[in-house]
Design brief:
This protein is an alpha/beta fold. It contains 22 helices and 11 strands.
């Protein structure tokens, strides 16, 4: 309907882009302060070294990475039509020749790359929000929270931080305050992206990082701004998924050194890089750049005790230690499982913005259809209530609030997660759990003494429970055939 109404108008292109966005994969932006490890984590998620990473500020404009049939780089300038540009890839990361374009002229750079990881999720690398380079911080903020009522291009956000700094909280608050950013706790995940550094690269560094993340998860201020907080050793994850055979052999050479000499090398970055040894310092420095001190220590320990006798075994063990798989599981349960909901919500908000900015003949019908869908779709009602509970707009007493969040999909959209049951729970257990939950929330919805907000919230949860009853019944019927 909207495409027909806006055909031939200045808003036609915008409506077409909304349709394209709705049909495409979920768009996930990777954001955070400068040197938070955004490009490194993106490479780890893709499983390939595509985004450039080094000690300087690499991301000078927004990079889009999406699946395609070929390998291509396209510049979208701030003024003018998109232009395909040459690129090379000699030492891992993609090097793009911008030609006549200055970085400040580029709105975004799209990298089309055949990749299984990118088929379900377009990843977007953004400049650091606290960059000292003029214009870069503003570009990142404008991308995630446009000031001119444009809908934000991303459906969901991974926000990276080394620890929770006041600047991170301020940015997330501003991001969520912008109605057109589509931000909510549901579509934002906070990542402690250099988690091994929290524990100063000690053997228990990731355990320490997990304890820090758990404290942040309990922080009410952060909880109302993001869905979850997860620790990931981003550099180790990138090294694990791109491990080279020669790097494994180099670790083996280190392990063959006398134990006292190796232990001495592993005491600090300076000693490992510069102390005389039969293993060349240039090779050790290269290994340190790829793995970090925590990764080098762990790799040596795994090879030394026989846990990793091949490069593939070392890669798998380092990947587990990095906690990248836990982030991927969270992306699958919180973002991918809600792909249609997140994209549909973003499309409705974007279409509503077009209607408000560009009223034309027939746009009233589009506006009415958008309002009807927004008010009638129970999935959107769940999102609104979950956000209201997280932000404190609706207050329920404990433990009602925790159960409501879980049933609404706060811990994941799958039935067993909503019901607080372990994976693989049988149909009988889930049916019993949902029946009990439905009865409890029906009583709360019918309580004449309860505040109106609590009653309305209970009614939404009742509808969710009824949907689960129907879903589980359909599964039992299908299995009995």
């Amino acid at each position: 309907m909207a495409q027909t109404v806006y055909s031939g108008t200045p808003a036609e292109r915008g409506v077409s882009e909304i349709h394209t966005r709705l049909e495409g994969p979920l768009r996930v932006a990777v954001s955070g302060k400068i040197k938070a490890g955004k490009s490194t984590l993106l490479n780890a998620l893709v499983g390939d070294e595509l985004a450039p990473t080094d000690a300087s500020e690499c991301t000078r404009f927004v990079w889009w990475f999406h699946d395609g049939l070929t390998y291509r780089a396209v510049v979208h300038p701030r003024h003018g039509d998109p232009v395909a540009v040459p690129f090379s890839r000699d030492a891992g990361a993609i090097q793009v020749d911008l030609g006549r374009f200055e970085p400040s002229d580029v709105e975004r750079l799209e990298i089309e790359w055949p990749s299984k990881a990118l088929r379900t999720m377009t990843l977007i690398d953004t400049p650091g929000i606290a960059s000292a380079t003029p214009g870069l911080a503003e570009a990142a903020r404008d991308f995630l929270a446009p000031e001119d009522e444009r809908p934000a291009p991303a459906d969901a956000v991974l926000y990276l931080m080394r620890h929770v700094h006041s600047a991170d909280v301020r940015f997330l608050e501003a991001f969520h305050d912008d109605e057109y950013a589509h931000a909510s706790p549901l579509n934002t995940i906070a990542v402690l992206s250099r988690a091994d550094e929290l524990g100063v690269a000690r053997p228990d560094a990731m355990e320490s990082a997990e304890r820090v993340a758990d404290r942040y998860r309990q922080d009410h201020k952060l909880r109302r701004l993001c869905q979850a907080v997860v620790p990931v050793a981003g550099l180790l994850a990138q090294a694990a998924v791109t491990l080279r055979e020669q790097e494994y052999r180099l670790v083996c050479q280190l392990v063959e050194l006398p134990a006292a000499e190796l232990d001495e090398l592993l005491l600090s970055v300076g000693r490992f890089s510069l102390r005389p040894s039969s293993v060349a310092s240039s090779q050790r420095a290269a290994l340190l750049r790829r793995f970090g001190l925590y990764g080098v220590r762990l790799a040596c320990a795994l090879v030394r005790d026989g846990s990793a006798t091949t490069a593939s075994q070392l890669s798998a063990a380092l990947l587990r230690a990095s906690r990248l798989e836990e982030l991927r599981d969270l992306l699958a349960s919180q973002f991918a499982a809600r792909r249609d909901l997140l994209k549909g919500r973003a499309a409705l908000l974007a279409l509503d913005a077009v209607v408000q900015r560009h009223p034309v003949r027939g746009s009233e019908a589009v506006d009415a259809a958008v309002e009807r869908i927004q008010s009638g779709a129970h999935e959107l009602a769940e999102v609104r209530l979950l956000n209201a509970l997280r932000t404190g707009a609706v207050v329920l007493r404990e433990p009602d609030a925790a159960e409501a969040e879980r049933l609404l999909g706060g811990d994941g959209a799958e039935p067993h997660r909503r019901l607080g049951l372990p994976p693989g729970a049988d149909g009988r257990s889930m049916s019993a759990a949902v029946s009990e939950a439905l009865a409890r929330w029906q009583r709360r919805a019918e309580n004449p003494l309860a505040p109106a907000a609590s009653v309305n919230a209970a009614r939404v949860v009742v509808r969710t429970c009824e949907g689960l009853v129907s879903e589980l019944g359909a599964v039992r019927t299908e299995r009995s055939r």
